[in-house]
Amino acid sequence: MLLGLAFNGIHMQKRNRGSRAFSFRSSGLCLSGTVVFLLFRRQQYTSFFYLYQPPDLYHRTAALCCMLLLYFCLPAHSTYIFPAQGSDTVVPAARKWVAAGGVALAFGGSLGLLMQSSNYVYQSRFHVNKTGIDYLGMDKVLHGQVAYTTARLLYGTLGWAGVADKNRTWMASGGALLFMTAKEWLDGHNPRWGWSWSDVGANIAGTAFFGVQQWGWGEQRLQLKFSGVPHRYSDPAIEQQVSMLFGTGLERAVKDYNQQTYWMSANLHSLGWSRLPPWINLAVGHGVENIFGQKENLQQGPGGIPTFDRRDLERRRQWYLSPDIDLTKIPTRSKFLRTAFYVLNTFKMPLPALQLTGGKLKVKAVVF
Question: What is the three-class DSSP state of 21?
């Protein structure tokens, strides 16, 4: 029956200039439903999925990854791949496969690496985190930033694959939100974190910030960017606490809020300052310092005995005002450079800045 429904879902649709394209959306729904059904069934049907995680959790994670894969692959491989109206450009058919495979690999690989991370120990029981805002809210800013960046990079990938402009905005926004929700669902099985509705709200805000601008302006006049330089702490106790909270190496670079600054970079030319070069931006940044615990710089062991106590260090916010460069506005005929500029535009350029911390204004020669 499922096979019959799959074939029934395949139909021809006419496009501009008499071209035709296959639509596999109905068949995709049937196939995805079958896969998810098998993933949630008994162990004998899905024993090959048991690689390193507890059965129940890995079942659901694999199902989410599969749905993400089908979400991108099926639309990208069917009716949405065609030249833009009035354009003679023909997108190579192989691009849709490369784009869909790359997205599936990136999403599935990211979730898989997250599940194997030493600081992420999962349990099968789902629970909700009710602690509220932690780390002076920097974890929520990170969620919004990652959701926005994921949507922006997906938008560029889908455009390269030939997806029509009117479709790729909602596909990119929806795909980013699905990915972030899958990640949050995994956190719901982590005894340290749990599902957080405030994290979900930040994910929605980040994807909406991208989608609303793209629908309204057709471009990102206000861009969310990131900067940070990983470093080790001279105090051994602090270094040990940071390693426990945020991990080491690349993991720390992503999670240690003391080393990060998040920016909103405004393109002045697009906002009405037409006399300025189109690549000049003005950015407002936000960071923190002395954050070595969720609510306070205190870590307690068994029996409530403190294992780390640096409440003498004031937890402070940092605000920045700095010029920036919109790399996507730099004219170039090189396809490689256009792609590189698009990706690198995720990061704030290291430039001078004004810093406001604890009521004191400072001038910084370079902030990154």
Answer: strand
Residue 195 DSSP SS3: strand
| Token pair in block for residue 260 | 């990060």
The CA distance from 13 to 22, in Å, is: 7
**Number of other residues whose CB lies within 10 A of the CB of residue 337:** 14
Give the CA angle between residues 10, 13, 15 to the nearest 5°.
150
23, 114, 110, 33: which is closest to 66 by C-alpha?
33
The DSSP secondary structure of 139-151, one letter per residue, reads HHHHHHHHHHHHH
Q: What is the pLDDT of residues 95-128, one digit of tens each?
A: 878 888 888 888 877 777 666 665 566 666 888 8
Q: What is the pLDDT of residues 298-353, one digit of tens each?
A: 988 888 888 899 999 999 999 999 999 999 999 999 999 999 999 999 999 999 99
SS3 for 20-57 is EEEECHHHHHHHHHHHHHHHHCCHHHCHHHCCCCCHHH
Dig out the tokens for 228 from the structure: 């940070």
Q: CA-to-CA distance for 120 and 187, rounded, in angstroms?
A: 8
Residue 361, classed as helix, strand or coil, is strand
Helices and strands (DSSP H and E) totals, the chain? 10, 10
Contact 10, 78 (CB under 8 A): no
Identify the residue whose tokens are 């995805």.
Answer: 32
Say how far apart CA 226 and CA 348 lie, in whole Å: 6
Which tokens in the block code for residue 29? Answer: 């729904």
Within 10 angstroms of residue 138's Cβ, the number of other Cβ atoms is: 21
DSSP element (H, E) containing 184: helix 165-187
| 149 token code pair | 């960046």
The backbone torsions φ and ψ at residue 220, rounded to the nearest 5 degrees and listed phi first, read -100, 90
pTM over 0.85: no
Q: Which residues make Cβ contacts (< 8 Å) with residue 36, sequence separation at least 6?
A: 63, 66, 67
* Angle between helices 55-77 and 165-187 in degrees, nearest 10: 180
Cα separation, 203 vs 140, in Å, equals 8
